[in-house]
Specification:
Length: 118
């Protein structure tokens, strides 16, 4: 086999894997894993099941912020949000103050958050 062609075949397979991975990251993630992360780290502010009365904390059970696309929400979870206009003077630390999450875990936790709207 001509090595040039073989390189192309390998590249094609790698591109396919990246595409599939990309699609699943935009989908619902693993919600059971996401719930574990949420209950352990995020619920201290956002509340169990996304129900909270803390001023300035988005209430996910009301679907707050869920009109945004995945990409900006994932960025907010990664980098935290320090918004001087927050009504309660609250900010969110990167990863909610917990350990760094992989892209897979970020998709899991956002997938779970998206299920909380009642
Ligand atoms: C220390 C409290 C605190 C913790 C813990 C916390 N958050 Fe937040 N979160 C906030 C605050 C405050 C905001 C709103 C910031 C703003 O826009 O003013 C927010 C906003 C968000 C948003 C909306 C961001 C946007 O772009 O509009 C998402 C999504 C979110 N949090 C997810 C999470 C997840 C997932 C976790 C756990 C990994 C988590 N939060 C942990 C305080 C917290």
């Amino acid at each position: 086999m001509n090595p040039g062609k073989r390189g192309f075949a390998v590249f094609g397979i790698a591109a396919g894997v990246i595409l599939i991975g990309g699609t699943s990251a935009m989908a619902a993630g693993n919600q059971a894993e996401g719930k574990k992360i949420f209950d352990g780290i995020c619920s201290s502010c956002h509340g169990m099941d996304g129900v909270t009365e803390i001023p300035g904390i988005p209430v996910f059970s009301n679907g707050e912020r869920m009109d945004k696309d995945d990409a900006p929400l994932l960025e907010s979870i990664k980098n935290g949000v320090d918004n001087p206009g927050n009504p309660g003077g609250m900010s969110m630390p990167p990863y909610g103050g917990g350990p760094e999450l992989s892209d897979g875990q970020l998709a899991d936790v956002l997938g779970y958050v998206r299920t909380l709207k009642k």
